[in-house]
Design brief:
The complex is a heterotrimer. Chain A folds into two domains: about 70 residues, Beta-grasp domain (Ubiquitin-like (UB roll)), CATH 3.10.20; about 80 residues, DNA polymerase, domain 1, CATH 1.10.150. Helix content of chain A is about 35%, strand content about 10%. The longest helix of chain A is centred in the middle third of the chain and has 16 residues. By secondary structure, chain B is an alpha+beta fold. Chain B contains 20 helices and 31 strands. Among the domains of chain C are: about 45 residues, no CATH class; about 110 residues, CO dehydrogenase flavoprotein, C-terminal domain (Enolase-like, domain 1, 2-Layer Sandwich), CATH 3.30.390. In chain C, about 30% of the residues lie in helices and about 25% in strands. Chain C has eleven helices and 14 strands. Chains A and B meet through helix 2, helix 3, helix 4 and helix 5 of A and helix 1 and helix 18 of B.
Chain lengths: ~170, ~800, ~280
């Protein structure tokens, strides 16, 4: 019984009722994953499981058995930041920073979803790949609340990375 | 020169990599305890019996305390109030709101404490609960003896004598802070009975003071540290006291570290929010819409304890004029005591509530005289400021001896100066110039005409547009709070450590103050090591509140840095047989006579010469004087201004609405950091718009807050951001001698969100024939917008 | 003792459930918040790995949706236009993080009156498939949902699939929800409409409204008023009073009853109008 977290295999917690968020924070001291509401309403605890974004507060650690979990700590290595992390700095995509790890994890997955052509609720034609617009990004990032209102920077940062990736 | 540079937040690399540490991320010793409160389930009642045996028996529970237990153990139930000593840590005999902490649990894990806290059984004798302002008025339940009344001139006579009159009333809802990081504190007991507290607080000194009082310790035995908060917005000015005190008491009882964090539901049920209120108004004016007299009544719902309600209600009164010269005015403010959460500080601290009143009056007047509301705003504006300082302040690093420039206040001729309702001269009014600039840049007049045409051909969707200005007074109204301290060390390797009394909650205060200090030493801001706010380093600090963080702490840090720099200059000048005022600190170097030293080498030489490289700094805001009983004086050093134009669209059949475009011009003085300031302006606007549109707090008939989770309490999300959002800074020097001639920016732009509410009202008006002024309460939820549309349309 | 069960087959799952006290976990996005304040009750049985519970298959009888199919999988699938409403609902559930974990079967068993998936499934005449040790039974969705947070599922039964009959796969459908914000909030009202159009007239109409009654429901009276009507006149045939009569909305913290039913009627008119728009040549 093990999970791979940021490339390292770790044993599952003994308590099967422990949420993935608690396990990451209390069990593994990976405190970059934040708990904002602990009920699936804010997105601060977003992590990636096999590349898909999920809320770690609504996921039991045992549900991730045998799967690959990536947290904010796993996106960079040392001073070598992920392009989204660089872009969030360049565009002031945060203020207090508490929602930021969740925003960046969500954005990482979102870029992949866009590349795979997954539609959102503002995609007019669900049968064609979604266009890369600020409106699409606004919509697709709406599962992550930012009370400081740094939305402009968040959108600008993601748009920049998305465009660079597309170029 | 580092002041004025758009540098990113100092902790940016930590934030994006998840390495920025908040209180709940600090590793605690393995024996740490976790705390939770058991909450009351009724709004008002006498506790007749409390059975906590199941709580004590629950797995992991180490201790349980009621108010009686605390009294037995500590001699009294510790008080948590920031003002009136009326907030015992636990309900003492009587519960006063639904969610009132009634007992305290300590357990071996957070979840164990929370689960155990739900097992308490409390029996009550229910008492009548006053839930609304009407309930409280009827029962004469209030703070202070009666309403506070301030006046200038004879408003009643002026209104009666004016050619036209309007009157009305509307409700303005409260607002949950919804800081993403909930309230949290931890206590680490030290040897000798000392306590170290980590707290997510805007007011470390208050935490220190209250913990010391509760624990019967001198303040010197309690040290409070705050590296950062995950958002505060005023909600962490006084509301963290309970958690810190609870942790300290449990640590004293058990000798173990203790941590308490509210889960989101508990946070929303327990803590105070923005004051909601009803505003009643009457105004008299001429055919141009020029106001002769106005009367306001504020019915503020303050909740069960006094907390900060008096200064909040004062500030609402102080902003009842906003940008308008009102020759005669009377403001009557009722601070009503109810059995609900104790309303508290929230960004703007009452200012937004006062300002939305006069903005609605102006709109109502414009409707009555049939003019564009912008024109009516303009005829009522205060007289503009005279010539400002010629040069941009903060453009070059001046020597401490010849800076700041002379005080422009004295240049103004007394006869030109108009006064506020509290008799303070308005000397720095730039609202007219800013509004003119914004009208042009936002293409307001053409768009207003285009919207009018568009609405004629659109039966279901209706657009609206509105401009609203802001004039916000900067200073704590409690005069003694306008002071700050700082501590700067230059080490012999040339590195610099900075500490001050302000706290970081995302606003970028630390970076701004570091830029000020870097400017003094002529070094790069990255050289400055910013350290956690610590009551052991800088004592007797004020809350980081009232937008004052940079103003106060920037000046204190500057003073400390200047002291060290002057010592360095004196020392190096002596060594080089030159005069101190020729020594220059620039680009990481120190120029002494013909020699150019690296800053590190200069520091090493000064150290070797046995000169102190450490200094405290202190600042007290000048000029302010305030008599709150009479409502007269100069409570503010200066005003910060701004204006916003918002365009919205509503659906007249469902009431759904959204913002289409926002244009903002905001006054930051000479911005210390334009990137951080633009972020503050954008975020404040979004929060202000949220307050008046979608953020709705609902209590049921029993006094239970029903919107206590993000699924039911809606804050603006990424998709609510205006699709077109143009923000510019009015980057001109403050005429007052502030740090770098900058202006405070935390709160003032919040009130730019009022333009959203007015634009919605404008769109509602377009659903009728224009004969009825739309009655609209805030927040303007789809349901309220639809109701307003129906009222307007029925009268067609 | 392990409290977390992940059986390999439906048979194993049923055997475990027969002992009682087992809570099926099908994504966990509703189960976990509902139980935050207490311990997760009893044994937790993860159904997401069971064979046949994930994915969508088509056959002569119609379409089968595995109960543990996620919203994301639904949104990404290529499906007939009759399921457009369901796919629109799928991309508006919670945020995308929720859509990746939450499942259609979980949404139904949780039985929130405001469940996004229910109105689109009602207009598809959906039947649910329940498997227990007594065998397999099928129920119309409207009979499966018996009240707020109540279903006809027995404690030892598993919801394994949803069946949409071939007869309901015709026409076009549309979903619309109302609220101050699309994401992360509980809706005030939502509607789903499926229409068959023949020669400019409505030959078949199915309308459902959610969040306005104890369980989401169809509106037979309004449906019969629309049947046979010319498309251009259809929206006007939806009268507020008829919609209100079919619903029993409650005043609650999110909206008053009058606002809810009025808004639902307006949303229905719009969805009908959208579906009746002439296709550009």
């Amino acid at each position: 019984m093990a999970i791979t977290i940021n490339g390292t295999e770790v044993p599952l917690p003994e308590d099967p009722r422990m949420s993935l968020a608690e396990f990451l924070r209390d069990g593994l001291h990976l405190t970059g994953t934040k708990i904002g509401c602990n009920q699936g309403g804010c997105g601060a605890c977003t992590v990636l499981i096999d590349g898909q974004r999920v809320l770690s507060c609504l996921t039991l650690a045992v549900q991730a058995e045998g799967r690959e979990v990536t947290t904010i700590e796993g996106l960079s290595s040392g001073d070598d930041l992920h392009p989204l992390q660089e872009a969030f700095i360049a565009h002031d995509g945060f203020q207090c920073g508490y929602c930021t790890p969740g925003q960046i994890c969500a954005a990482t997955a979102m870029l992949r979803e866009l590349a795979e052509g997954m539609p959102s609720s503002v995609t007019g034609d669900l049968s064609r790949p979604a266009p890369l617009t600020a409106e699409e990004i606004r919509e697709r990032m709406s599962g992550n609340l930012c009370r400081c209102g740094a939305h402009n920077g968040i959108i600008a940062a993601i748009l920049q990375v998305a465009q660079e990736g597309a170029a | 020169m580092s002041m004025g540079k758009p540098l990113p937040h100092d902790a940016a690399p930590l934030h994006v990599s998840g390495a920025a540490r908040y209180v709940d991320d600090i590793p605690l010793p393995a024996n740490a305890l976790h705390l939770a409160f058991g909450l009351s389930t009724i709004a008002h009642g006498e506790i007749t019996a409390m059975d906590l045996s199941a709580v004590r028996a629950a797995p992991g529970v180490i201790g349980v305390w009621s108010a009686d237990d605390l009294r037995a153990r500590f001699g009294a139930v510790p008080d948590c109030s920031p003002s009136a000593h009326d907030e015992p840590l636990l309900a003492d005999g009587v519960v006063k709101y639904l969610g009132h902490p009634a007992f305290l649990v300590a357990a071996t894990s957070h979840l164990a404490a929370r689960k155990a806290a739900r097992l308490g059984r409390i029996d009550y004798r229910e008492l009548p609960a006053l839930l609304t302002v009407d309930d409280a008025l009827a029962a004469d339940s209030r703070f202070e003896d009666g309403p506070v009344i301030w006046q200038k001139g004879d408003a009643s006579t002026a209104i009666a004598a004016a050619p036209h009159q309007v009157q009305g009333s509307f409700e303005v809802g409260g607002q949950e802070h919804f800081y993403l990081e909930g309230q949290v504190a931890a206590c680490l007991p030290q040897d000798g009975g000392e306590l170290v507290i980590h707290s997510s607080t805007q007011h470390p000194t208050e935490i220190q003071h209250k913990v010391a009082h509760a624990a019967h310790l001198p303040m010197s035995a309690v040290r409070v540290e705050v590296r950062r908060m995950g958002g505060g917005f005023g909600g962490k000015e006084s509301q963290g006291n309970h958690l810190a005190i609870a942790c300290a008491l449990v640590s004293l009882e058990t000798g173990r570290p203790a941590k308490m964090r509210y889960d989101r539901d508990d946070d929303m049920m327990i803590t105070g929010k923005r004051h909601d209120l009803r505003i009643l108004y009457r105004a008299g004016f001429d055919a141009e819409g020029r106001i002769a007299g106005v009367e306001f009544t504020h019915l503020m719902r303050c909740g069960w304890a006094q907390d900060l309600s008096l200064p909040v209600a004062d500030r609402a009164m102080l902003h009842s004029d906003n940008c308008y010269f009102l020759p005669a005015i009377r403001i009557e403010s009722h601070r009503l005591r109810t059995h609900t959460q104790s309303a508290t500080a929230y960004r703007g601290f009452g200012g937004p509530q006062g300002m939305v009143g006069i903005e609605r009056v102006i709109d109502h007047v414009a409707h009555a005289v049939g003019r564009d509301p912008v024109a009516v705003r303009q005829v009522n504006f205060y007289a503009p400021m005279g010539e400002g300082p010629a040069e941009a302040g903060g453009a070059s690093p001046p020597r401490s001896t010849n800076w700041p420039p002379e005080d422009i206040f004295r240049q103004k001729k007394a006869g030109e100066i108009q006064t506020t309702p509290y008799h303070m001269p308005v000397e720095d009014f730039v609202g007219d110039a800013m509004v003119a600039d914004l009208l042009a840049s936002s293409d307001y007049h053409a768009r207003r005409a285009a919207i009018s045409d568009w609405n004629r051909n659109s039966p279901i969707l209706k657009r609206g547009i509105a401009l609203s200005p802001v004039k916000f007074g900067i200073s704590f109204t409690l005069t003694h709070l306008n002071q700050a301290g700082a501590l700067v060390h230059v080490y012999q390797d040339g590195s610099i450590q900075l500490n001050h009394g302000g706290t970081e909650m995302g606003q970028g205060l630390f970076q701004k103050v570091a830029q000020v200090v870097a400017g003094v030493f002529g070094v790069d801001a990255a050289v400055i090591r910013i350290t956690a706010t610590d009551t052991g380093k800088v004592p007797n600090t004020s809350a980081t509140a009232a937008s004052s963080g940079s103003d106060l702490n920037g000046m204190a840090a500057r003073a400390a840095a200047l002291t060290i720099r002057d010592r360095m200059a004196d020392c190096l000048a002596l060594q080089h047989q030159t005069t101190a005022n020729t020594v220059r600190f620039e680009d990481g170097h120190v120029h002494v006579g013909a020699e150019v030293l690296g800053f590190a080498e200069a520091a090493a030489r000064v150290y070797a010469a046995r000169v102190s490289l450490s200094s405290t700094g202190f600042y007290a805001t000048p000029k302010i004087i305030w008599d709150r009983k009479r409502g007269t004086g100069r409570p503010f050093l200066y005003f910060a201004y701004g204006a916003a134009v918002t365009e919205v669209v509503i659906d007249r059949l469902t009431g759904e609405n959204r913002i289409l475009r926002t244009d903002i011009l905001h006054d930051t003085g000479s911005s210390l950091n334009p990137a951080l300031d633009i972020g503050q302006v954008e975020g404040a606007y979004v929060q202000g718009a949220g307050w008046l549109t979608m953020e709705e707090l609902v209590w049921d008939a029993k006094g239970a807050l029903r919107t206590h989770a993000p699924s039911t309490y809606k804050i603006p999300a990424c998709s609510d951001r205006p699709p077109v959002f143009n923000v510019r800074l009015w980057n001109r020097p403050n005429r007052e001698d502030t740090v770098g001639r900058s202006k405070a920016v935390g709160e003032p732009p919040f009130m730019l969100g009022i333009s959203t509410f007015l634009a919605l009202s404008d769109a509602v008006a377009a659903c009728g024939d224009g004969s009825v002024y739309p009655a609209l309460d805030a927040p303007a939820t789809p349901e309220r917008v639809l109701a307003a549309v129906k009222r307007v349309a029925r009268d067609v | 003792m392990t409290d977390f069960l992940r059986p390999a087959t439906v048979e194993d799952a049923l055997a475990l459930m027969a002992a009682g006290g087992v809570v099926p976990l099908a994504g966990g996005t509703d189960l976990y918040p509902a139980t935050q304040r207490r311990a997760l009750p009893g044994l937790v049985l993860d159904v997401t790995g069971l064979p046949g519970l994930c994915g969508i298959t088509t056959g002569p009888a119609g379409l089968r949706i595995g109960a543990a199919t996620t919203w994301t999988a639904l949104a990404r699938a290529t499906l007939p236009p009759a399921l457009a409403a369901l796919q629109q609902a799928a991309v508006e559930v919670g945020g995308i993080q929720i859509q990746n974990a939450g499942t259609i079967g979980g949404n139904l068993c949780n039985a929130s009156p405001a469940a996004d998936g229910v109105p689109p499934l009602l207009v598809l005449d959906t039947e649910v498939e329940l498997v227990g040790h007594r065998g397999i039974r099928r129920l119309p969705l409207s009979q499966f949902l018996t009240g707020p947070r109540q279903t006809a599922r027995q404690a030892d039964e598993l919801l394994t699939a949803l069946h949409i009959p071939a007869s309901a796969l015709s026409g076009q459908s549309h979903f619309r929800k109302l609220g101050a914000r699309a994401y992360l909030v509980i809706s005030i009202a939502m509607v789903a409409v499926r229409l068959d159009l023949q020669a400019g007239r409505i030959s078949h109409a199915a309308l459902a409204v959610g969040a306005c009654s104890a369980t989401a429901c169809r509106l037979p009276q309004v449906e019969s008023a629309l049947t046979g009507a010319p498309a251009a006149e259809a929206p006007a045939l939806i009268r507020d009073a008829d919609v209100a009569a079919a619903l029993s909305p409650l005043d609650d913290l999110r909206a008053t009853a009058a606002y809810r039913s009025g808004a639902a009627a307006e949303l229905l008119r719009r969805s009908v109008a959208t579906l009746c728009q002439p296709v550009p040549a």
